[in-house]
Amino acid sequence: MSSLALAAGVLAGCASSDADADPVRTPKPSPTPTPVFTSDADALAAATKVYKEFEAVSDQIGRDGGAHPERIKPYVNAAGYQHELEEAQKMRSEHSHGVGSTVLNNIVLQSHEENDGVATVTVYTCEDISSIDRIGADGKSLVSPDRADYIAYVAVLRADQSHQLVIQSNKYWSGGGICKH
Fold first, then answer.
1. Which end of the chain offers a freer environment for a tag, N or C, measured as fewer CB atoms within 10 Å?
2. DSSP SS3 for 7
3. What is the pLDDT of residues 89-108, one digit of tens each?
């Protein structure tokens, strides 16, 4: 048998009919991410829990005169953490400390959105700070007697599939109606 005939036979053995050809492979669709929260109520409950924990830790750092501010890190993003470190340093440098505790007077869901496995929860909060004071090294209050007892904020929190909400921003909110007292 000639090498040409042998090669033709080998090639013929490799050929297949159209029915045997590999089908065109289409990529499998990416799985849809599981929602971080199954409802607005779940998102609000998680935001409320994280916000209360954040306030409790923040108040404790204040009562400790700014010591060990790293305790706040699980609750805030990098910019928030830097702000908290600066506030704690200020307390330590002026030898001041906080007294009292913040009370979350009200929290209302503004929105809950989920995109690509990331949940963003925006809430309006009202904090009762009437029992909060900051005491200086001389034992006197550093808080203005004109300070309001209630402060409203709009807070944005984000979570990924870990379900751990982290405060992205917490800004004064001048809109009305959130503070009920």
1. N
2. helix
3. 999 999 999 999 999 999 99
Q: Using N-to-C axis directions, what is the helix angle for 40-63 and 78-93, rounded to 10°? A: 20
124 bridge partner residues: 108, 154
pTM score, whole prediction:
0.80
Taking the C-alpha atoms of residue 62 and residue 143, their distance in angstroms, rounded to an integer, is 13
3-state secondary structure at position 53: helix
Residue type, 97: H
Q: Which residue has the tokens 């034992």?
A: 139
Query: Which residues does residue 128 pair with via DSSP β-bridges, in sequence order?
Result: 103, 150
Question: Do 77 and 167 form a contact (C-beta atoms < 8 A)?
Answer: yes
Give pLDDT tens digits for 149-177.
999 999 999 997 788 999 999 999 987 78
Which percentage of the chain shows pLDDT scores above 90? 73
d(CA 74, CA 161): 16
3-state secondary structure of 68: coil
Only one residue has tokens 């007077």, namely 105
What local confidence, expressed as pLDDT, does residue 5 receive? 43
The single-letter code of the amino acid at 53 is E
